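[step 3/7] fold_predict: job queued, chain A
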Amino acid sequence: MRGEKSSIDHSASSSPSCFAHFCSSALRTKTLSPQSETSVRVISGNGLVRRLGLFDLILIGIGASIGAGIFVVTGTVAHDAGPGVTISFILAGASCVLNALCYAELASRFPAVVGGAYLYTYTAFNELTAFLVFAQLMLDYHIGAASIARSLASYVVAVLELFPIFKGNIPSWIGHGSEEFLGALSINVLAPILLLLLTIVLCWGVGESSALNLVMTTTKVIIVIFVVIVGAFKIDVSNWSPFAPNGFKAILTGATVVFFAYVGFDAVANSAEESKRPQRDLPLGIMGSLLSCAALYIGVCLVITGMVPYHSLGEEAPLAEAFTSKGLKYVSILISIGAVAGLTTTLLVGLYVQSRLYLGLGRDGLLPSIFAKVHPTRHTPIHSQIWVGIVACILAGLFNVHVLSHILSVGSLTGYSVVSACVVTLRWKDKTSSQVSRGWISNWREGVLCLVIIACCGFTAGAIYRFDASLFFLIVPVVIAIFATAALYRRQVYTDPPGFSCPWVPIVPAVCIFFNIFLFAQLHFEAWVRFLVLGIISIGIYAFYGQYHADPGYAVSE
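[step 4/7] structure written:
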């Protein structure tokens, strides 16, 4: 039964009772508690400290985003999408704006506790779904941190090689990565060292890590703006033709790759417990950082694809190589320095967010309680932070970044879709009475069924488009999704949430879900396999550990 915690005698339980316990546990939801309980945690030393203002939150969002997208992914995607990589960033950005509106509402609704998408799902749906969302998002963050760490190591080596003493004397396995062996393994020594240093800063305190983020984010934004201005005078418009050499499909596939470059707003939502005025600042921080990033991404894409033919862009350092080819060596040096600053902040914020998510699950009992421990004087989740650093070091030190990038965006796309669904379900008036059966199905289940239909239609439309089926077959799932959205609009009663309100509910969340899952269908086959395999493993972990240790009644504030 929802909201109830069952007790079970493990030694005498039978298979049916085990299954019943699993089902009742999986369907539990997280209830809300008074605001004062969060304050008690801070006073007693068990919570985080509120030190982040609006400007800090915007910088966290920009720090998490600007770096990977501009300095790493741009050249890789441009090889397939051509100058149309700009459209890839616009499409991914449009999807993220819709997601950001949903995140902004929920961040304003739950302004006092860490957890982000995991917390929202736990409150709106159930325990198992929340755990699955956490697992998919966390793997994206782990892979993203490893990918960025290797790129950062490569840029650090590039900067060091500007000095004659290092030129040509640094082995590839130090920073650029050794040659592959066994299909995907590639040794990189510098990446784990950089991860270790950032982990120490994050363990030291949120004030220190925020100051580092301020300096480096400001540096990289200034450099990006300088690059756009200087590069604009070197554009050859003939390089923009053909704009989409491999068709619109390559642009859509590119959008799924660069989608991860916008996930900075998710980092802002996970800063709830450390924000000074979360109910006001979180929505502003989310939207402000996302729109700032979108403008910078689009400007850089137009400049570098206009300066150099898309097929000549390098994959490791496209910006620096583009300016070097134009004889602007001093700009390429500046870009390399900016890349180091940019990737450092992206990595710093990524590690920060991961530790806060582990903290949330540790508090709720879905992970061992060691993850819930907060240092009494530093007020940081030190054990969670160290664990996150260890995982990132192993991935970055051993695996080829190109192989890892193929399975990115899975957790982001699915997690953001679930968050959009949370906006809809939490707006339904009198959730308890809506679950009472009126006919063959309750209003609540009918609404959830409509959301599932929209998601299935998004995936079907994406698969049809991907495999070049007839346009007629593409129109059918779109029409069905429209009818499902209309049913949500007409057959459910919605309330106004406290704080920021996402406009046009349920239409905006429905469009968001459809587009996210449409992009999900464009992912590589390996990403689909990763989604299924990780889902099965996560259910197994929950079945053997989470369901017996979870405590959904842990303090949450609204």
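[step 5/7] annotate
The chain has 22 helices and no strands.
The two ends are 24 Å apart (CA to CA).
exit 0
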